[in-house]
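Protein data:
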Amino acid sequence: MTSSIAIVAVVGKGKIPNEQLAYMLQVITDVAVLFSFSCRLLAELDNLMTSSQRIVGYTELESEDALMK
């Protein structure tokens, strides 16, 4: 998306005001940063949920004393 906006900025240099081109580039860069940040947050949430699932699984295990007898 950033590349397409950059191409529009280069092609439409004389047709589109510079302020609008700068604003479009700034907005698309912000969107890319927010998308990256949200992906990182979702990955961290997945890790935390997996950790809590493992803890619950460990509490449901039989003790080793019962297995040795």
